[in-house]
Write a structure and sequence with these properties.
This is Proteasome subunit beta. It is found in: Cytoplasm; Nucleus. Keywords: Cytoplasm, Nucleus, Proteasome. With 242 residues, this protein is of the alpha+beta class. It has a domain of 153 residues: Aminohydrolase, N-terminal nucleophile (Ntn) domain (Glutamine Phosphoribosylpyrophosphate, subunit 1, domain 1), CATH 3.60.20. 29% of the residues lie in helices and 27% in strands. The protein has six helices and 13 strands. The strands form two sheets. Strands 1, 4, 5, 6, 7, 8, 9 and 10 form an eight-stranded antiparallel beta sheet that branches. Strands 11-2-3-12-13 form a five-stranded antiparallel beta sheet, with helices on one face. A hairpin with a 5-residue loop joins strand 9 and strand 10. The longest helix is centred in the middle third of the chain and has 20 residues. It is globular, with a radius of gyration of 21 Å.
Length: 242
């Protein structure tokens, strides 16, 4: 009995390979700063479906291993893929059982290589990442974009935060800031983003990492004031306005 001929696709062997052409559910800015005892990260919990604020409880700050803290802007499902890869990396490292563990610099290098690798395949992960950590008393803070552009600094921001929050941080940040002062500065930046970024929501988390470990706050809201005269009639005085 002859076997049935194998079906062959007219589209070729790569017909089933798909690329993410456009991000669907996205998160907005992440802000990170160093302070006296470690690193602080802040992000709101909004998830935008296109231009619609569809989700209001998306957590975008996650711990990575013992010494690192990760925040992400951009496509939420791609962030979940990055976290899955990091879980495998940390598990593989733990299996050595050699008394050592990956620090934030190693994790940042890994993320840089992963983002650049996906970019070279024309199938990028649509995220901008902020990676902070503390190991052996050394504070570390860096960022990496969806095409692998990366750097370290005392304070970093993604998305609109890179335009609206960074000027505030440049004016007010100090290397010896206390935890309370760092949180106050981050809340000021997040309030400005709430006023000016349509993708931001008034529900945020602030995470800290020190030698003792990672602490991520419960979600909370900021006190806001919307009765500024410019908010009441934003087109007043505009040429050609109705």
């Amino acid at each position: 009995m002859e076997s049935a001929p194998a079906k062959c696709s007219l589209l070729g062997p790569e017909a089933d390979i798909q690329r993410t052409q456009y991000p669907y559910v996205t998160g907005t800015s992440v802000i990170g700063i160093k302070y006296k005892d470690g690193v602080l990260l802040a992000a709101d919990m909004g998830g935008s479906y296109g231009s619609t604020l569809r989700y209001k409880s998306v957590e975008r700050l996650k711990s990575v291993g013992k010494h690192s803290l990760l925040g992400a802007s951009g496509e939420i499902s791609d962030f979940q893929e990055i976290l899955r890869n990091l879980d495998e990396l940390i598990l593989y490292d733990n299996m050595w059982d050699d008394g050592n563990s990956l620090g934030p610099k190693e994790v940042h290098n890994y993320l840089t290589r992963m983002m650049y690798n996906r970019r070279n395949k024309f199938n990028p992960l649509w995220n901008s990442l902020v990676l902070g950590g503390v190991k052996n008393g050394q504070k570390y803070l860096g960022t990496v974009s969806m095409i692998g552009v990366h750097y370290e600094d005392n304070h970093v921001a993604t998305g609109f935060g890179n335009h609206l929050a960074k000027p505030i941080i440049r004016d007010e940040w100090r290397e010896d800031m206390s935890y309370e002062e760092g949180v106050k500065l981050l809340e000021k930046c997040m309030r400005v983003l709430l006023y000016r970024d349509r993708s931001a929501v008034n529900k945020l988390q602030i995470a800290k990492i020190t030698e003792e470990g990672v602490t991520i706050s419960q979600p909370y809201s900021l006190k806001t004031f919307w009765n500024f005269s410019a908010f009441q009639n934003p087109t007043a005085g505009a040429v050609g306005s109705w």
